[in-house]
Amino acid sequence: MEKEHSGHKYNCENCPKSFSKAFQLAYHAASHSEERQFACSACGKSFKRRKQLAAHRKAHSDARPFACDQCGMRFKLKSVLK
């Protein structure tokens, strides 16, 4: 169910999705584009979104900020910690 607060809808030209805010539509529009404007300076891999690049950069870091409270093993990504 979509919420509409302002009476305006921002409709995607490429699919049936619509958004209540323009920035949401702009963020969504990247999913339809082949352009990958955010490139990793370490390896050259590129991404559609800045957040994807930020997550990828952790692969090049030695930092392991997420520790298992049971065994002490440390991980780069929280999603790997189970």
What are the main properties of this structure?
two-stranded antiparallel sheet, two-stranded antiparallel ribbon, elongated, Double Stranded RNA Binding Domain, about 15% strand, 6 strands, about 80 residues, about 20% helix, single chain, alpha+beta, 2 helices, 2 domains
Q: What would you say this structure looks like, in words?
A:
The protein is 20% helix and 15% strand. The chain has helices at residues 22-29, 50-57; strands spanning 10-11, 18-19, 38-39, 46-47, 66-67, 74-75. A hairpin with a 6-residue loop joins strand 1 (10-11) and strand 2 (18-19). It folds into 2 domains: 1-33; 38-80, Double Stranded RNA Binding Domain. It contains 2 helices and 6 strands. It has a two-stranded antiparallel ribbon with strand order 1-2. Strands 3-4 form a two-stranded antiparallel ribbon. The protein has a two-stranded antiparallel ribbon with strand order 5-6. With 82 residues, the protein is of the alpha+beta class. It comes from Pararge aegeria (speckled wood butterfly). Keywords: Metal-binding, Nucleus, Repeat, Zinc, Zinc-finger. This is Zinc finger protein Gfi-1. InterPro entries: Krueppel_C2H2_ZnFinger, Znf_C2H2_sf, Znf_C2H2_type. Residues 10-37, 38-65 form the C2H2-type domain.
Can you give me a brief rundown of this structure?
By secondary structure, the chain is an alpha+beta fold.
